[in-house]
Design brief:
The chain has about 240 residues and is α/β, with parallel strands linked by helices. The protein has one domain: NAD(P)-binding Rossmann-like Domain (Rossmann fold), CATH 3.40.50. Helix content is about 45%, strand content about 15%. It has helices at about 15-25, 35-45, 65-70, 95-120, 145-165, 185-190, 195-200, 210-220; strands at about 5-10, 30-35, 50-55, 80, 125-130, 170-175, 235. A seven-stranded parallel β-sheet has the order 3-2-1-4-5-6-7, with helices on both faces. The N and C termini lie far apart (about 50 Å). About 40% of the residues are buried.
């Protein structure tokens, strides 16, 4: 019987590349997205192993039922917590509502969905959770205070979860993407040459990563290749986090 995975925010960018990698390796993957058309189109593009789930993760009360419905297809073996939001604003202009909305989506929903999935994994002999962090948790980046706080929390949660869930044979790891070539990042960097030069000059490998680089790292954590690895944060960043 094929494994079952969930990828949140899997209808574009890094989530799409991750879902594709899992599906290409015979894993039935439920892609959670807010937008019906975008999520269904992504699943059509990936192929038969991709199944769309139209759901807004901000609806915390609905998460247990959604996970129970997915589990009717079999044990959930892999959860990839990829969905997240961000915006750029000067520190003093960030409102309490701004801050709260990012914390809610990027931390609270990750906790809630992980909790519900672990209930299932615990009863089926274990599983793998892979969280997605960011360079913002590796060093300070201006104008993204709420996002930075949320991704710092994700890395701390990864360690806490790994220690507590090991007893259930649930491994928890984290991938911290560097600057990756997506439509969104290309647009942002191309419109700000100074920022792009800064990114590339402090990346020892001197290039932007590919979305597939993140998919490959997630797949490593989700597979038996990493069976003795838990509680780690893997920067996939061309050396950016240690660059000078």
């Amino acid at each position: 019987m094929s494994k079952i995975a969930i990828v949140t925010g899997g209808n574009s960018g890094l989530g799409f590349a991750t879902a594709k990698k899992l599906c290409d390796n015979g894993i039935k993957t439920f892609i959670i997205g807010r937008t019906k058309e975008k999520t269904e189109d992504a699943c059509s593009e990936i192929g038969a192993n991709a199944i769309p789930v139209i759901f807004d993760l901000n609806n915390l009360a609905g998460i247990p039922t959604m996970i129970t419905d997915i589990a009717k297809n079999g044990n959930i073996d892999i959860l990839v917590n990829n969905a997240g939001i961000n915006f750029k604003k000067e520190f003093i202009d960030v409102t309490d509502e701004d801050f709260d909305s990012i914390i809610h989506t990027n931390i609270q929903s990750v906790f809630s969905i992980s909790r519900e999935v672990v209930k299932i994994m615990k009863n089926h002999g274990g599983g793998n959770i892979v969280n997605i962090s960011s360079m913002a948790s590796q060093y300070g980046i201006p104008k993204v205070i709420a996002y930075t706080a949320s991704k710092g929390a994700i890395e701390a949660m990864t360690r806490a979860m790994a220690v507590e869930l090991a007893q259930y044979n649930v491994r928890v790891n984290c991938v911290a993407p560097g600057f990756i070539k997506t439509k969104m990042s290309a647009k942002a960097l191309d419109s700000d040459p100074e920022r792009k030069n800064k990114v590339l000059s402090r990346t020892p490998m001197g290039i932007l990563g590919e979305p597939s680089d993140i998919g490959d790292a997630v797949y490593y954590f989700a597979s038996s290749e990493s069976k003795f690895v838990t509680g780690t944060v893997l920067p996939v960043d061309g050396g950016n986090s240690i660059g000078f």
